[in-house]
Amino acid sequence: MDSCALPLIAELPHRLPPLQAASSRRRTLAIGLIGPGRVGSVLLAQLRAAQERLSREAGLELKLCGVAASRRMWLDCDDPELNARHDCAQTWRPTDLDQFAAYIRGEDQRHAMLIDCSASETVASQYPYWLASGLHVVTPNKVASSGPLSRWQSIRAASHHGGRFRYEATVCAGLPVVQTLRDLLDTGDQLLSVEGMFSGTLAWLCCQYDGKRPFSTLLREAHALGYTEPDPRDDLSGTDVARKLVILAREAGWPLSLQDVAVESLVPQHLAELPLESFMERLDELDEPMAERLALAHGEHGVLRHVASLDRDGHAQVRLHVLPSSHAFAHTRLTDNIVQFHTQRYRDNPLLVQGPGAGPEVTAAGVFADLLRIAESLEVRA
Ligand SMILES: NC(=O)C1=CN([C@@H]2O[C@H](COP(=O)(O)OP(=O)(O)OC[C@H]3O[C@@H](n4cnc5c(N)ncnc54)[C@H](O)[C@@H]3O)[C@@H](O)[C@H]2O)C=CC1
Ligand SMILES: N[C@@H](CC=O)C(=O)O
Fold first, then answer.
1. For residue 144, how far is its CA from the centre of ligand 2 (angstroms)?
2. Cα(152)–Cα(145) distance, rounded to whole angstroms?
3. Complex ipTM more than 0.90, yes or no
């Protein structure tokens, strides 16, 4: 090889210097995390791992002031070690979201953020009040952005005057989907339609399911890997994907609601209303109907793919398709999601976002990136 070639990576300086002198932009952000489950606990680990670097290189002090689960909450006033230990804090109180939010907000006009890593309606219903009180809110929870339109509008209104609201990880986990759409719209483009595969769980199941192992075994595995929703029926029923379509439509200013989406459910009626525990015990009842779907796909020399679409007239649908093996969606791997945006500018050839679309690591990273975007905009306070 030519000796004048580019230097080897090992010869390059270890890392580039931080762009900004950390000391001139020193800010502190108080954080309260709600929902230390699969995504929430990985996020806590990511925050802890980045804490020192962010302080040194970006002048950003992340201060974990509280963690709230469904029944218990931990506050750093009770447990001064919380910031270092996070999930193994010892002293707890019963969860009270009002008390939690007030504590994180503090009394000294500090920058404060609540991160909702639950899938809870109760938590989501508090966003308008939290935002109006100046708390920033970041979340992968889809319930608020796809729930009642009037609540969504109050969240948007509150976030224009109070705290900031970001929810990138609600659509395709860590992939830059909401921000991509936002950038298109903010620069004057117009959304015409969206199509793609928006479920990491169903993408993974469709790739793995070849009939050798029962569908229920694979679903249990997807659950254990943290790909599914807390209740996997939210994935199988198509509701989770319908929520993502609604979120994207609303981002583009289309007043879509869940009931406007035509959804094919893969959950047999008799399993739909069971308590979660009973459903998980009866997963093998999904095996026969899914084996029939697979046989149908094989009969047509195609593959099963879970596809969602939203057209320019607002028609939205979510269903399991048999696609020819030559189709672009047939070549995805593992939890890959694909989003195709057709816009005025990307009319002939859509703008594509593709990559892993589920799992605690990538989702937590998407939430973390939202936190950093808000932190970048915070003014320095004495
Ligand atoms: N797992 C993934 O790949 C992705 C997940 N998400 C979303 O992330 C969120 C979390 O998902 P997972 O971590 O998988 O769920 P999980 O079930 O593992 O964790 C949920 C946590 O929320 C807590 N919680 C429930 N109700 C609560 C309440 N009322 N108050 C306080 N805490 C409450 C639970 O105690 C638990 O700690 C969900 O909204 C999900 O839709 C979004 C994108 C990808
Ligand atoms: N359960 C969801 C997680 C991300 O939203 C999925 O499988 O896509």
1. 16
2. 6
3. yes
